[in-house]
């Protein structure tokens, strides 16, 4: 099968321009997913990598684990400690998800958020930007 294209068409759906200004290449954003996966038992710097990638992201997700481990992320000389919240939630433009495979201790989640909100303005409005899967495991269910 062949695709025919007019000579004025531009690849990647970009609009054709007749401007005399030099062409500036725009990245083809499209639908991209970046996964940060730790291959060791921690301390690889995943939290900082997620924080850096979140600067250009719309969504950050946490998909497994519990609050037994954590990430420390330093932004503008402020240390944020995350155990349940996805570390990319520091970016105020990001919607954060806690997915199916995460074990949530709800009192711990609210305590973590409160401690980090007190440290700086980056976490303000976190509760409006966090979505928690209804298939997460609640810690209370596991111990009863």
Beta strand count: 6
Coarse shape: globular
**Major beta sheet, specifics?**
4 strands, parallel
How large a portion of the residues is in β-strands, by DSSP E? 15-25%
Structural class: alpha/beta
Termini separation? 60 Å
- Radius of gyration, taken over Cα atoms and rounded to an integer in Å: 20 Å
What string gives the helices and strands in order? HEEEEHEEH
Q: Which regions are unreliable across 5 or more consecutive residues at pLDDT < 50?
A: 1-19
Report the total helices.
Answer: 3
> What's the helical proportion of residues?
10-25%
Arithmetic mean pLDDT: 76
GO molecular function: adenylosuccinate synthase activity; GTP binding; magnesium ion binding
Protein name: Adenylosuccinate synthetase
Subcellular location: Cytoplasm
Cofactor: Mg(2+)
């Amino acid at each position: 099968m062949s695709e025919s294209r007019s000579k004025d068409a531009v690849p990647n759906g970009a609009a054709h321009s007749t401007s005399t200004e030099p062409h500036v290449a725009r990245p083809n954003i499209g639908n991209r997913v970046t996964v940060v996966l730790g291959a060791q038992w921690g301390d690889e710097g995943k939290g900082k990598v997620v924080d850096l990638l979140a600067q250009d992201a719309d969504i950050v997700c946490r998909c497994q684990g519990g609050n037994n481990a954590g990430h420390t992320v330093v932004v503008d000389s402020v240390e944020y400690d995350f155990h349940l919240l996805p570390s990319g939630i520091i970016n105020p433009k990001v919607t954060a998800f806690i997915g199916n495979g995460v074990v949530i201790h709800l009192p711990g989640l609210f305590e973590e958020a409160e401690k980090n909100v007190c440290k700086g303005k980056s976490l303000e409005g976190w509760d409006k930007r966090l979505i928690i899967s209804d298939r997460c495991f609640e810690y209370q269910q596991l111990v009863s």
